[in-house]
Amino acid sequence: MTDLEILTELEPVVEDNLNRHLSIAKDWYPHDYIPWSEGRDYAAMGGVDWDIEQSQLSEVARVAMITNLLTEDNLPSYHRTIAENFTLDGAWGTWIGRWTAEENRHGVAMRDYLVVTRGVDPVQLENDRMVHMTRGVHAPDEFNGPLDQVVYVTFQELATRVSHRQTGLVCNDDVANSMLKRIALDENLHMIFYRNLAAASFDLTPDQSIVAVTKILKNFGMPGTGMPNWRRNGVLMVKHGIYDLRQHLDEVVRPILKTWKVFDRDDYGPEGRKSLDELGEYIEKLERDVLKFEESRARIAARTRARAEREEDVATLVGE
C-alpha cells in the first residue's frame, strides 16, 4: 500500500483513539509540581548563582534529569518529523496538535523544578539546550513513511516512560518523583495511542507492518542521541538502571511485540515471513547481548565493592 492509502485507511482508527485518549487523559498543570517556596534569586537579580553544593540530587539523578529534559526540549524536531510522515489534515492533524501540546508540558515542569530547586547548573543546562536543539533530531534515512514512524514512536514512548519513572526513583525526592510519575503517565497514554495504530496497521497490511517493526528495532536509538555528553551520561544511566538493555528487552520490546502478536500471526506473505525470521534472529541476539551486559556489570560491581572494602580496611589500619 502507498503511504497515502495507509494514512487514509488508518484515519478512522486515529479518530477513535483520539476520542478515547481525550476521554481518559486528565488535565494537569506544571506549576502544581514545583516547590516554588524553595526558589531564590540568581546573581543577575542580586542573588547567588548556582553551586554544586546547592544541589540535593546525586550525580546519577542530575545526569538523568538533564538527559530526559534535553530529550523533551527537542519537541520541535519530533513535531516536524511526525507532521512530515503523517498529515496535518483531519484526525491526524488534531492528534498531532494535542500530542505536541501535552509533550510540551513535560519540559516546562522539569525545567522549572530544576531551576527552582537548583538541582543542576542552569547555565550549563541552557548551553546544552542551545546545542541540542540547534542540531535537532533527524530520523535515520531508513525510516520513512507513516508505518515506520508509528512503530518507532510506540517503542520510543514506552522507553521514555521507563526512563522517567526510573529517574524519579533515583532523585530521592518526593516532589521530583511525583512530577516524573505524572509525566510518565502521559508517555504511557501516548504509547497506547501509537500501539493501537500499529495494531490496526497489522490487520491492514501485515507484511509492510512487520517489515517496519524489524527495521525499527534493528536500528532503534533513543531520541537523545547526539546531545552534549551523550556517551558519558548514557553509560552512567545504563550502569545505574535508568534505562539499560534488560529494561529495553523486557519492559519495552517484548510487551509491545506480544500485544501485536507478531510471532503468532499466520497472514504474512513471503516478504513478511522473511522479515519475521529476521526479527526472531535479532531478538535472540538481543537476549544474548543482555546476558553479556549483565555479566559485565556484575563483574564491575564486584570489583568496585572489593576496592571499597580494601580502602576501608586501609583506613581502619591507619586509624589504629
Automatic annotation (TrEMBL):
Its cofactor is Fe cation; Fe(2+). GO terms for biological process: fatty acid biosynthetic process. Fe cation 2 binds at E103, E157, E187, H190. One of its GO terms (molecular function) is metal ion binding. Residues 276-311 form a coiled coil. Gene3D superfamilies: Ribonucleotide Reductase, subunit A. Keywords: Coiled coil, Fatty acid biosynthesis, Fatty acid metabolism, Iron, Lipid biosynthesis, Lipid metabolism, Metal-binding, Oxidoreductase. One of its GO terms (cellular component) is cytosol. It holds the Pfam family FA_desaturase_2. It comes from the Bacteria. The keyword Metal-binding applies. Fe cation 1 binds at E72, E103, H106, E187. PANTHER family: ACYL- ACYL-CARRIER-PROTEIN DESATURASE-RELATED, STEAROYL-[ACYL-CARRIER-PROTEIN] 9-DESATURASE 7, CHLOROPLASTIC. Homodimer. Belongs to the fatty acid desaturase type 2 family. This is Acyl-[acyl-carrier-protein] desaturase DesA. The gene is desA.
